[in-house]
Design brief:
This protein is an alpha/beta fold and 239 residues long. It folds into two domains: 26 residues; 181 residues, Rossmann fold. Helices cover 34% and strands 27% of the residues. It contains nine helices and eleven strands. The strands form two sheets. Strands 4, 5, 6, 7, 8, 9, 10 and 11 form an eight-stranded mixed β-sheet that branches. Keywords: Methyltransferase, Signal, Transferase. GO terms for molecular function: methyltransferase activity. This is Class I SAM-dependent methyltransferase.
Length: 239
């Protein structure tokens, strides 16, 4: 009886130790909380402070007339090599600036416009292109999930939004699950290495930091196209 009790205690300790080690090694356990930048939420992931989400009140900035000149969106779309049958998700779609440019190119496919703010979803639905183009579908996401079907996406686009994810590790796992085996993730972020880019520090990312974070969620960098004026165009695939 004593031997049996000792064995049970021993097994219990092994389970506890294994659980603790798993928690230490888990990327989700790397979230830390401390005071940081005024523009940050005080939550850190892999050495980077997460920025505040831009609210729906910033729609005017998203739709600014000079955006094409500043970001060369048309060149970004060429980088994506969108095919007529592509199924694409714009994560953090905002008011649909990129969505309605991609939809005609994927005329036989579909473009999911995903955002966590209902006001942004409403703005997309209020756009006349929403009904005219016919292949745009809005999706209300959450802080941890894009809420998209598994293994359905050819391409995922994230423009200046990843750095605002409150749960980047979980969101990337959700995106990875929704991507097809040969799907591509286009991560567009203002270049953190370039001090001349006129964007607040927490709203920029370096290639090194992006690669580190996406690797933790099972992605690898295929290439980083440097043909945009201010932004990285990093293309990731499943690792």
């Amino acid at each position: 009886m004593v031997q049996k009790s000792t064995l049970l205690v021993f097994l219990f300790l092994i389970v506890c130790c294994t659980t603790l080690l798993a928690q230490v090694d888990s990327p989700t356990n790397q979230y830390t909380f401390k005071k940081g930048d005024y523009n940050g939420i005080g939550k850190w992931y892999m050495g980077r402070e997460i920025a505040y989400v831009m609210g729906y009140q910033g729609i005017g900035w998203l739709e600014r007339p000079e955006r094409e000149k500043e970001e060369e969106t048309s060149k970004l779309l060429k980088n994506m090599n969108i095919q007529p049958s592509d199924v694409i998700a714009d994560i953090g779609a905002g008011s649909g600036y990129h969505v309605f440019k991609m939809a005609p190119l994927a005329k036989n496919g579909k473009v999911y416009a995903v955002d966590i703010q209902q006001e942004m979803i409403n703005a997309i639905k209020a756009n006349r292109n929403y009904t005219e183009q016919g292949n745009v579908e809005t999706v209300l996401g959450s802080e941890k999930s894009v809420n998209l079907p598994e293994n359905t996406l050819d391409k995922v686009l994230m423009v200046d939004v990843y750095h605002e994810f409150s749960f980047p590790y979980e969101m990337l796992l959700s995106i990875k699950k929704a991507l097809k085996p040969n799907g591509k993730l286009f991560l567009i972020e203002y270049r953190g290495e370039d001090n001349t880019v006129p964007i607040k520090r927490l709203h920029k990312m370096t290639e090194k930091q992006a690669v580190k974070e996406l690797k933790a969620s099972g992605f690898k960098l295929e290439k980083n196209l440097d043909n945009l004026p201010w932004q990285h165009c990093m293309i990731f695939v499943k690792g």
